[in-house]
Design brief:
single chain; alpha/beta; TIM Barrel; 13 helices; 10 strands; disordered N terminus; PI-PLC_domain
């Protein structure tokens, strides 16, 4: 127990201010051409064990959970939790992309908003935004990208409330979408937060909100199938600005039935050695096969954050992406696993 804990503390200390320690040659490169570590379903570390199933889930799941809660609810929990570190711990560990699935509870008369992944969280969105602000105030040269997504149960009034909270809490730290987000520019202007928002009406009304960030979601139970999907997406070409390559595996009903004693954490940890090889072969940059944000589950494991940050050392003009020789080497490494 002592060894992993010491390693974790060391990683957090080293990566908490990694952006401020990047070499000056990278300060004028837009953030969407750097390698940034992200967490998938950031807030699932605080899912409420007593919560009702969210409104977006299927009628079958809701029915089974209602009829057999002692059996179904524990299964839901062990396949819904994707992170164990708090948001502050994730930021301190070096994560710079946060995946926020935001929801309003059905039949809740209040304006309180929560995070959701099958069930709701114990904490509110407003509390977490303030927690992020406190961390940013002690890390003035770090930049965080917040992706606001899903919006389960949000009305127009609740969207207005959410955007007002975002603007009130972060104020001048919000980077407008007309700014080219290089570190040098953001440091000069005092911007530390980029918020992408998956709702067109609000997006059109507020220059502080950025368009939705594409997320390459493989929806695969197999590591090799996920890597094949990511390589296929790279061949098609990266988007022009921010995008996420998700290295998160996804269970389905068949997988759960075949692996009754497993969990999303076990599934993820088994995949990490293979995914680590894939990550180390990537290049950040503007070219077709380059990557930007890489987001995963259980980000405190297996040096994931450190491996993504270190990809930025490959940015040394002329900027290039993976060569055919490196791809052959990568394929042979996978075959040996």
């Amino acid at each position: 127990m002592e060894g992993p804990l010491q390693t974790f503390v060391h990683v957090c200390h080293e990566n908490g201010q990694w952006m401020s320690r990047l070499p000056e040659k990278l300060w004028d490169i837009p953030l969407y051409n750097l390698a940034l570590p992200g967490s998938h379903d950031t807030m699932t570390y605080c899912l409420d064990k007593s919560s009702a199933v969210s409104g977006n889930e299927s009628k079958l799941v809701k029915f089974l959970n209602k009829c057999l809660p002692c059996i179904v609810h524990p299964i839901i929990m062990k396949w819904s939790i994707t992170q164990v570190l708090t948001v502050t711990e994730q930021l301190e560990a070096g994560v710079r992309y946060l995946d926020f699935r935001i929801a309003h509870k059905a039949n809740d008369p209040s304006m309180n908003l929560y995070f959701v992944h099958m069930v709701y969280t114990t904490v509110t969105v407003q509390d977490i935004l303030r927690e992020i602000l406190r961390w940013l105030e002690t890390h003035p040269q770090e930049v965080v990208i917040i992706a606001c997504r899903n919006f389960d149960g949000l009305t127009k009034r609740l969207h207005n409330h959410l955007v007002a909270c975002i603007k009130e809490i972060f104020q001048c730290k919000l980077c407008p979408r007309n700014v080219v987000p290089t570190l040098r520019t953001m440091w000069h202007l005092g911007h530390q937060v980029i918020v992408s928002y998956e709702e067109e009406v609000e997006l059109g009304k507020h220059c502080e909100l950025w368009p939705p960030i594409p997320y390459w979601w493989g929806n695969k139970t197999s590591t090799r199938a996920l890597i094949r999907y990511l390589e296929r997406m790279k061949r098609m070409g990266r988007p022009g600005k921010f995008f996420v390559a998700g290295i998160n595996l996804t269970e389905n009903l068949r997988y759960i039935l075949v692996h009754p004693f497993s969990s999303l954490k076990k599934m993820t940890l088994q995949s990490l050695p293979c995914l680590k090889i894939w990550i180390k072969q990537q290049y950040p940059g503007p070219k077709k096969k380059c990557i930007n944000i890489i987001a995963g589950d259980f980000i405190g494991n297996n040096d994931f954050v450190k491996d993504v940050i270190e990809l930025n050392t490959k940015i040394n003009p002329p900027l290039h992406c993976q060569s055919e020789l490196e791809q052959i080497t990568f394929n042979s490494q996978l075959l040996n696993l």
